[in-house]
UniProtKB/TrEMBL annotation:
Keywords: DNA-binding, Transcription, Transcription regulation
Domain of life: Bacteria
Listed PROSITE patterns: HTH_LYSR
UniProt cross-references to InterPro entries, sorted A to Z: LTTR (IPR050176), LysR_HTH_N (IPR000847), LysR_subst-bd (IPR005119), WH-like_DNA-bd_sf (IPR036388), WH_DNA-bd_sf (IPR036390)
Domain HTH lysR-type stretches: 6-63
Family: Belongs to the LysR transcriptional regulatory family.
Molecular function GO terms recorded: DNA binding; DNA-binding transcription factor activity
Record Pfam families: HTH_1, LysR_substrate
Protein name (record): DNA-binding transcriptional LysR family regulator
């Protein structure tokens, strides 16, 4: 059987349209006409031999074949861009500064640093793992170029990469630090203030009329996990990267408030962060797609705006 080479430009338009939620917006970002992007999508369908899109109300959604191709397209484009960056950027020098929420220090940072260093061996990358408040301060002071942080609604230039559920966490051993209906204030394990998730926990408990007390305060995430695992109290966090000594608690069973979700955003120091910054941003997106559950990522299969006409 004669193998077909997928068109990289067409794949880029396909991914850009899904990510932008509109192929019209993707055409504008890519500097192409709507008819050119439409032709590229048709070319991809001819090359794969399957329909990639289907009508969904006034917009379009991905078919099963489209969802499968989207996953491969991201990987193909990432490898293509990494190869070109490595060849073209072999003589590039300088540095770029990246900050990450400490929740992602062990899962995302090694992947990001390794891929970027291979593509740009002469570029120094300065990484900082910190809490939201510190990342926000350093972005404002011009000490970071990019920062992966929780969305507190204050970032001027930010791209939402994922939405993670918040949850109550307790010791995995089953011991309950706060028996429901005991009449005792709920013991809360939290990070030092100011802390976005600490504030959310207190607000939700107050809203439900539950008495609480701060049982343990830690300056770092490691201390929070240790205190929670020891049964000193209950913590509020996302399900990402918590140790096996800690488990997610069912709110209804433990008499705890239901919780909202929290956005994860990539902040930029400026709208134009240059080719090195853009490549680092692309690596971060890919790392999240590879490490986070698909339910936390933007839903690629949902309806999005079609090209005009």
């Amino acid at each position: 059987m004669r193998l077909t080479n997928l068109d990289m430009d067409a794949l880029r338009s396909f991914v850009a349209g899904v990510d932008a939620g509109s192929f019209a917006r993707a055409a504008d970002r890519l500097g192409r006409s709507s008819s050119a992007v439409s032709a590229q999508l048709k070319k991809l369908e001819d090359q794969t031999g399957v329909a990639l899109l289907r009508r969904a109300g006034r917009g379009l959604s991905l078919t099963d074949g489209g969802e499968a191709l989207l996953s491969y397209a991201r990987r193909l484009l990432s490898l293509n861009d990494e190869a070109l960056s490595a060849v073209r950027g072999i003589e590039l020098e300088g540095w770029i500064r990246l900050g990450l929420q400490e929740d992602f220090g062990e899962t995302v940072l090694p992947h990001v640093l390794g891929r970027f260093a291979r593509a740009h061996p002469k570029v120094k990358i300065e990484g900082r793992i910190a809490r939201n408040g510190e990342l926000k301060e350093k972005m404002a002071a011009g000490l970071l170029d990019l920062a992966l942080s929780w969305d507190d609604g204050t970032a001027a230039t930010a791209e939402r990469l994922a939405t993670l559920p918040l949850c109550w966490l307790g010791a995995a051993g089953g011991q309950n630090a706060w028996p429901a209906h005991s009449g005792e204030p709920l013991p809360l394990v939290a990070l030092e203030a100011p802390c976005l998730l600490r504030t959310l926990a207190c607000e939700r408990l107050d809203r439900q009329g539950l008495a609480w007390r701060i049982a343990f305060v830690s300056p770092s995430l490691g201390g929070l996990w240790a205190a929670t695992a020891a049964g000193l109290g209950i913590a509020l966090r996302t399900p990402v990267s918590h140790p096996p000594s800690v488990r997610v608690l069912d709110p209804a069973r433990h008499g705890l408030p239901e919780l909202p979700s929290l956005g994860l955003v990539l902040q930029r120091a400026a709208p134009d962060i240059g080719p090195l910054g853009e490549h680092l941003a692309a690596i971060i997106r890919q790392a999240l797609h590879e490490t986070l559950p698909a339910t936390y990522l933007p839903p690629a299969g949902d309806a999005f705006q079609a090209l005009p006409g």
